[in-house]
TrEMBL record:
InterPro entries referenced in this protein's UniProt entry, alphabetically: Cell_wall_metabolism_enzyme (IPR050570), Dup_hybrid_motif (IPR011055), M23ase_b-sheet_dom (IPR016047)
UniProt organism field: Helicobacter felis (strain ATCC 49179 / CCUG 28539 / NCTC 12436 / CS1)
GO molecular function annotation: metalloendopeptidase activity
Keywords assigned: Signal
CDD domains in UniProt: M23_peptidase
Residue stretches making up the M23ase beta-sheet core domain: 331-423
Protein name, entry field: Peptidase M23B Metalloendopeptidase
Length: 450
């Protein structure tokens, strides 16, 4: 008899040891993703948001269960912060999948905004753990109900914008769970920057020469992907000096194929590649915004009243072979005639780039805040270095010649978030005065709110 008892004890101990070894709770994966459906009218693109914290009950919440031992069942329990259970369900899974997705159930009763919902999701697998009941994995998710979009208010803005030019806007967003706020020109998104105090933002909006249609809006989105859009009503000035030059290549090249090959190394087309690099540098620098712009002075890189223009902003060069268009290049800045001239800074800024730049010779890129940069190219000497803080009157470099510059000149560009804009605006005292007035008016109105 005692032998049977010993045998039973050994078998029992062996099974307990085996059960201990195979019991591995928490090994399964339980993930929650919010699937955002596209909505062009409200400026929402299709997206998947991992680790969501807010829910407007419109977008689908997808739960994904995954385990190597196959899924036996899952249990969903939903309760509020005051422990009211608003949903509970146990689901047996018959086909034993290793991966399963389902839509997170919505509360079965009406709840007010900002109600905190606690979701507990448990999954059991088909392993022999826990005396054949399977391993258990549990995940908890807290979601705040939020069906109200942010509130937007324009504090101050420019009254007009010119094709190829810029405008300024300052606005406020009232939203405790703000996810993002940006400007749009109808095609591209533009970053906004904190201004004066919390919940207030400022941005300069460019009207790109590459885009005739222009529809400016402010867009704010909270963490539940509720979106608010308001239009920016500018007087649009579409008249701008237009310069086009046709360059016939049949005298330089024997045939069309040779002309096409020659254009690949032409400075105008090398600059196209360089411009992409320059725009990437500007975009990367937007997160390194210096202090808010207090006020600006008119830009005057040559410190003279009427510098001589060699090639204007927006000039279009068309390269032809026997009348057939082979390529075209758009001039993104303005070229001023110089004679070994000093290039001076007109405002406080930070040097982002100071080095030899393909097809431009030596170049300098300076940041001023609010996504505004100036680029000075075609220099023979650089007198500043990267990360230098510069002030008005500082000599940045000396103009000169390079392999791409047949004439001594400086190439001057103004960029808003990487988009080249009309430099003469930023050199115009009237434009700068209006720009500063918008900043001053916004500061005053924000201070009066306190």
């Amino acid at each position: 008899m005692w032998r049977w008892i010993v045998l039973i004890m050994l078998v029992g101990c062996g099974y307990l040891s085996y059960n201990y070894l195979i019991t591995k709770d928490g090994q399964g994966k339980i993930e929650l993703v919010m699937q955002v459906a596209p909505d062009k009218q409200n400026g929402i693109a299709e997206a998947e948001v991992t680790h969501p914290t807010h829910w407007n009950l419109k977008h689908r919440m997808r739960v994904t269960l995954e385990t190597k031992a196959k899924i036996r069942s899952y249990h969903v329990r939903v309760s509020t912060s005051d422990h009211l259970v608003v949903y509970e369900k146990e689901q047996i899974v018959l086909d034993e999948p290793s991966r399963l997705s389902f839509e997170l159930p919505k509360p079965s009763i009406q709840l007010s905004d900002q109600t905190l919902l606690h979701y507990e999701i448990r999954m059991r697998d088909w392993s022999n753990a826990h005396f054949f009941s399977g391993n258990l994995s549990t995940a908890n998710f807290d979601l705040t109900l939020d069906t109200t979009p942010p509130t937007l208010q324009i504090i101050s803005q420019s009254s007009s914008i010119t094709y190829g030019g810029s405008a300024l806007v300052v606005f406020s967003v009232e939203e405790e769970s703000l996810d993002a706020a940006w400007l749009s020109d109808g095609k591209q998104k533009f970053k906004t920057f904190p201004f004066v105090k919390a919940k207030h933002y400022a941005a300069i909006l460019p009207w790109s020469l590459q885009q005739r249609a222009f529809s400016a809006t402010i867009i704010a989105r909270d963490k539940a992907y509720n979106t608010k859009i308001i239009p920016l009503n500018f007087t649009k000035i579409t008249r701008m000096p237009y310069y086009r030059r046709d360059i016939e290549l049949n005298k330089k090249y024997a045939n069309k194929e040779a002309a096409l090959q020659g254009l690949k190394t032409h400075p105008d087309f090398e600059r196209t590649k360089m411009r992409l690099n320059l725009e990437e540098i500007v975009q990367a620098d937007l997160d390194n915004t210096i202090a808010d712009i207090a006020r600006l002075n008119p830009f005057n890189p040559l410190a003279m009243s009427k510098p001589r223009v060699l090639l204007p902003f927006g000039a279009q060069k068309r390269y032809l072979f026997q009348g057939s268009l082979l390529g075209q290049a758009l001039h993104a800045g303005v070229d001023f005639m110089t004679k070994h001239s000093k290039i001076q800074e007109s405002n406080e800024g930070r040097v982002v780039l100071a080095e030899e730049i393909q097809s431009y010779g030596k170049g300098i890129l300076v940041a001023y805040g609010l996504g505004l940069h100036a680029f000075y190219g075609g220099l023979s000497k650089i007198l500043v270095k990267k990360s230098d803080l510069v002030e008005s009157g500082r000599v940045l470099g000396i103009s000169g010649f390079s392999y791409a510059n047949k004439l001594d000149h400086v190439h001057f560009e103004m960029l808003v978030q990487g988009i080249p804009v009309y430099p003469h605006e930023w050199m115009d005292a009237g434009f700068i005065q209006r720009f500063n007035a918008v900043l001053q008016e916004a500061r005053q109105r924000i201070q009066e709110k306190r």
